[in-house]
Amino acid sequence: MQITRFGHATVLVETSDTRVLVDPGVFSVVDAFALTDLDAIIVTHQHPDHIDPERAPALLDRNPDALLLADPETAASIGFGDWAENADGLETQVNELTVRGVGARHAVILPTIPRIGNVGVLISAPGEPTLFHPGDTYEYVPDGVDVLALPLSAPWAKVSETVEFLQQVSPHVVFPVHDCTISDLAYGVYWGQVEGHGGVEDARRLGQTDTTTV
Question: Which residues contact 189 (CB under 8 A, 6 or more apart)?
Fold first, then answer.
């Protein structure tokens, strides 16, 4: 499995015959929206840092055969594309990959802000590791995660919760996502806690456009 970051929460997952893009949002690099030959585009929730309403339509035009999958609220409200619903426990087949929904609600930002839908994704295939992208929450902890895309910073998160979530998931490999809210100067403060206290030996500090193979 090859994993490429395209900025913030955007991740491209590639196996031998399948390419799946998760969360192409407003903080994503421009190259994310030039991708072609995608088999699926998945959106965990409706916030613009996870789906860019301005640039995403062109991405869909470049990938007319891609399955479009989103949490129910996003699928019902998004103004472009024909989106299928993803939900907790629901499995969707994308060629050799199985995409399973995890969770239902976004993390609490403030008590006065209503919680929206958020469905993370477990991506697996025979002979491949299982990757978990939770979207914007630490609430749901699935079993059998080999690779975790770990949200590193958010208005709804603090470092102790980040580390606790990592420990609970207990993957073999972890890499950061959701980190465009951190300055370059301060980045090591956050990632240092993950490396030092998360209990995962293979912690890969991938930059915004880095690729790794697991």
Answer: none
Secondary structure of residue 13 in the 3-state scheme? strand
Q: What is the dihedral of CA 137, 22, 75, 81, to 10 degrees?
A: 160
For residue 127, what pLDDT is reported? Answer: 94
Confidence band for 93, pLDDT divided at 50, 70 and 90: very high
Angle at alpha carbon of residue 193, lines to 12 and 110, rounded to 5°: 75
Mode of pairing for the β-strands spanning 40-43 and 19-22: parallel
With CA atoms as reference, report the closest residue to 25 among 133, 114, 131, 148: 133
**Rounded mean pLDDT of 158-166?**
98
- On whether the CB atoms of residues 180 and 7 are closer than 8 A, the answer is yes
Distances (CA, A) of 1 to 86, 90, 94: 22, 22, 15
Strand (E) or helix (H) holding 190: helix 187-197
Task: Write down the pLDDT at residue 182.
Answer: 97
CA angle 8, 10, 11 (to 5 degrees): 125
Average pLDDT of the residues in 135-142: 98
Whether 174 contacts 200, CB under 8 Å = yes
Cα three-residue angle 162-184-33, rounded to 5 degrees: 85
